[in-house]
Design goal:
This protein is α+β, with helices and mostly antiparallel strands. It is built from five helices and five strands, in the order H-H-H-H-E-H-E-E-E-E. The protein is 41% helix and 25% strand. It comes from Cephalotus follicularis.
């Protein structure tokens, strides 16, 4: 209760009975599963709407084995020791193999394999 309801009786306070309150709580407990199911449906619908909105604006990057790519130099050297005038992209590198869609193993043009895998968002296709 808020302080005003102590001095001025509201409808909620006037019509409160313990039995009605208990009955209402029991009804809500019976409907908890249904409320949870409705919440799951709402969350799923929201996620699908957000996914459709995002996917409308995403441009696919069809990279294949053997393509030449540039890699983001900021991601390659996360220590931040690079200066602000350093190039943003380094390479070219060759895609050695596709680990899964969007994830690639790279090698230098000399054939030396790069130790870690790279995501497509950190790569840019190199055109000669």
């Amino acid at each position: 209760m808020i302080l005003v309801e102590i001095g001025v009786q509201s409808l909620r306070v006037v019509h409160f009975t313990e039995d009605n309150n208990e009955e209402g709580l029991r009804c809500i407990i019976d409907l908890v599963e249904e409320l949870r199911d409705k919440a799951v449906i709402r969350v799923t619908a929201y996620q699908q709407r957000v996914g459709r909105y995002y996917n409308k604006r995403v441009s696919p990057r069809p990279l294949r084995q053997g393509d030449l790519v540039l890699r983001n130099s900021v991601v390659a050297d996360p220590t931040g020791t690079r200066g602000k005038l350093a190039p943003a992209w380094e390479g070219p590198y060759k895609i050695k193999r596709v680990l899964r869609p969007g994830t690639f193993k790279l090698e230098t043009l000399g054939g030396r394999e790069i130790s870690r895998a790279w995501k497509a968002e950190h790569l840019r296709k190199y055109y000669q």
